[in-house]
Amino acid sequence: MHEPLFQPIQLGAIAVPNRIIMAPLTRGRALPDGVPTEIMQTYYSQRAGAGLIISEATGISREGLGWPSAPGIWSDAQVEAWKPVTEAVHNAGGRIILQLWHMGRIVHPYFLGGELAVSASATRAPGHAHTPEGRMDNVDARPLRLDEMPRIVDDYGRAAENAKRAGFDGVQLHAANGYLIDQFLRDSSNLRDDDYGGSPANRVRLMREVMERLVSIWGADRASIRLSPNGESQGVDDSDPATLYAEAAQVLEALKVSFVELRQPGPEGTFGATTVPPQDHVIRAHYSGPLILNSDYTPEDASADVASGRADAISFGRPYISNPDLVERIRVGAALAPNIGVPQTWYFPGEAGYIDYPTLAEEAARATA
């Protein structure tokens, strides 16, 4: 059953035994200072059967992280705490890359000692931010100055170097879902009239400069990217996504990045529904490397899209929360376990709803005990 999902694939330098990828999932189990915790070792190693694990979004700098108890990768303490996580995954036979995250205007001043968050332009994300003291209304960000752009690229570069020190198998640039790179890419949030704004070629400039730095550190065959070209995401959207993402795809093709992951939201997607036609065909027209699609897939839909060639692999998000052995469940056609106690257990600290979901084998053992 679902044979297309069980064909091996090469994602750059990484040999992947199946096409069931673990998507990045923010879970909020690090310490308040972004240092990974011991239960994260268990969580990721439980899911090592994935063809590839893409880690939860991980802050590249204090400036770029505005989610309670999300991990970072800018300090030595964070690097040292990530090492046993990657080791646990490797010991379990898995592969794991680190997703590099700068949240841009989504970071509330609460996390920055009262300083304003940075973005492409002086815009405000809709709604509110989550902080350890509860929800707080988002505020206007300040636009990054031209002389700050090299610092942003350096922050990504330092994080990429730290990911290598921590034992990851590669890195992914988070350029989706309304965060900093996405805020530069799309014209609803990028109102600049300098070299980083206006034309699609200018709006992809920061993405290109960051990807060039990641490639210089890791090699193109271990550097990838996540994009979300299909409609509004946290207040970020574009008036002409086909033209914009054709430009972005041409950059990624020239750099020969290891793979591109696209968020394809369904009607109940985490970041809202979309009325924009899927843009994966635009990426396919300009980027020849592996394409991974994500969001709201069933095993049946995933198999069909891989079999048809629409995607080379599928990344699963929420199903991996409650199914640590998702690959095995799909392989044998077993029912998927539902997420229990959500959404509270998605982000709250502790083991509940994090490392206590049983595998099929554990369920069977309990039933016969």
Structure description:
The protein has 369 residues and is of the alpha/beta class. It has helices at residues 38-46, 76-91, 149-165, 180-185, 200-203, 205-218, 241-255, 280-286, 299-308, 319-322, 326-332, 344-347, 360-368; strands at residues 9-11, 14-16, 20-22, 53-59, 96-101, 118-119, 128-131, 134-137, 142-143, 171-175, 223-227, 260-263, 291-294, 313-316. The strands form four sheets. The chain has an eight-stranded parallel β-sheet with strand order 3-14-13-12-11-10-5-4. Strands 1-2 form a two-stranded antiparallel sheet.
Short description:
This protein has helices at 38-46, 76-91, 149-165, 180-185, 200-203, 205-218, 241-255, 280-286, 299-308, 319-322, 326-332, 344-347, 360-368, and strands at residues 9-11, 14-16, 20-22, 53-59, 96-101, 118-119, 128-131, 134-137, 142-143, 171-175, 223-227, 260-263, 291-294, 313-316.
How are the strands ordered across the major sheet? 3-14-13-12-11-10-5-4
Shape field? globular
Helix content: 25-40%
Task: List the secondary-structure elements in sequence, H or E.
Answer: EEEHEHEEEEEHEHHHEHEHEHEHHHH
Give Rg in angstroms: 19 Å
Number of beta-strand segments:
14
- Pairing-aware structural class of the strands and helices? alpha/beta
What percentage of amino acids are in beta strands?
A: 15-25%
Low-confidence stretches: 267-275
Calculate the mean pLDDT score and round it. 94
The main β sheet shows up as: 8 strands, parallel
Q: Whole-Å distance between the termini?
A: 30 Å
Tally of helical segments: 13
